[in-house]
Amino acid sequence: MWQSALVHPIERLRYVARAGGFDQIDLAREAADALASLWGEPAELVNACRRILHHHPLAGSLWVMATRVLIAVEPRRAALEFLDELNADATSGNVTDALPLDATVAVIGWPDLALEKVHNRSDVTIRVLDAYGEGAGLARSLLQKGVEVEEVPFTGLGQACSRSDVVLLEATASGPDSFIAPAGSYAAAVCGTQSGKQVWVVVGHGRALPERIFDVIENQLIAENTMEADDEVVPMSVVTHVVGPKGLSGSEDRSREDCVVAAELLRPVL
After folding, report:
1. Is a pLDDT exceeding 70 seen at residue 28?
2. Together in a domain, 223 and 140
3. Domain range holding 43?
4. How far apart are CA 239 and CA 234, in angstroms?
5. pLDDT tens digits, residue range 128-161?
6. pLDDT of the residue at 52
7. Is 267 inside a domain boundary?
8. CATH code of residue 82
9. Are 102 and 232 contained in the same domain?
10. Using an 8 Å Cβ cutoff, are 66 and 265 in contact?
C-alpha cells in the first residue's frame, strides 16, 4: 500500500485508521504490520486499536487482529502470526472448488475474497449486480482474468438471482445469527432462496466474531440511516451455505469464532 518501512508506526496507524477505498484484507495486513512495531507501548497499542476500529467498525478482520494483539503476552508475535494466517486463508480457494459445474453465479458489491481465484474455473459465469456503480469495474477486472461475465443493473436483481445457480455473498463480519454485507444482499438472498437456489455467504478467516463484538458492530450500523447505508445486516436464515477456511458447510453450522472478547475494545472512543 505504501513504503511503510520508512514511516513511524504511529503515523502508519493513523493512516490505517483514516484510510478509505481499500479492502479490509489490505487494511488488516497493514494494521497488523504496524501494530507489531508498537509491542513495547501498551497504552498506545490499546488506543491505536480502538481508533482503527472506530474508523472501520464493520471490518471483522480488524476486530480479530486487534483482539489477538491486546490479549497476547507477546503482541508483536500475535500481530505477525495473524498476518500469516490471513495470507494462508484457504477461503477463496474453497469457494472456487465448491462451485457447481457450469454454474451461473450472482454477486453483489465487489467480493474480493470470494472471487479471488474464480478465474481458475473457466466453466463458471459471474453475473455482476451493479449496486454502487462498481459493477463495470468488477466486470472489467474479471474479464481481464478470462472470467465469463454478465453485467446486470440493480433493477434486475430479482430476475438475476432467481435465475442463477448460486447467489454468492461476502460478509465483512459475521456473528452467530447474522452477518454484514453490501446493501442489497438481503434482497438478493431472499430472491435466491425463494426460487430454490443456493445462497452462499463467504466468511473469510478473521471475520467470524463472538456475539458480544458482533452486537457492537450491528448496533453501530443500525444507528445510521439504514435506508441509505452501503452495508446491511443479513440474517443467516436466508442463506443455505457458509464458506470459510475449512470449506463449504450448511448455514446451521455457525459455531466458529476467530477470536475471544477484549473488553478494552468495546468501550466507545471519546
Report:
1. yes
2. yes
3. 4-88
4. 9
5. 999 878 889 999 999 999 999 999 999 999 999 9
6. 84
7. no
8. 1.20.120.420
9. yes
10. yes
CB-based contacts of 23-27 (< 8 A; 24+ apart in sequence): 23/110, 23/112, 24/56, 24/59, 24/60, 24/61, 24/62, 24/172, 25/61, 25/86, 25/112, 25/113, 25/204, 26/1, 27/56, 27/59, 27/61, 27/62
Q: Residue type for 102, please?
A: D
Domain limit, last residue, from 33, 65, 88: 88
**Other CB atoms closer than 10 Å to residue 217's CB: what's the count?**
24
Residues 80 and 142 in one domain: no
pTM of the full structure: 0.89
Answer yes or no: is 151 within a domain: yes
**Dist CA 262 CA 270 (whole Å):** 18
Residues 207 and 96 in one domain: yes
pLDDT tens, residue by residue, 182-206:
999 999 999 999 999 999 999 999 9
- Pair 52, 178 in one domain: no
φ/ψ (deg, to 5) at 149: -130, 145
CA–CA separation, 174 vs 204, rounded Å?
9
Q: Which is nearest to 250 in space by CA: 258, 239, 260, 259?
A: 239
The answer to whether residue 74 is domain-embedded is yes
Distances (CA, A) of 235 to 61, 124, 158: 20, 27, 18
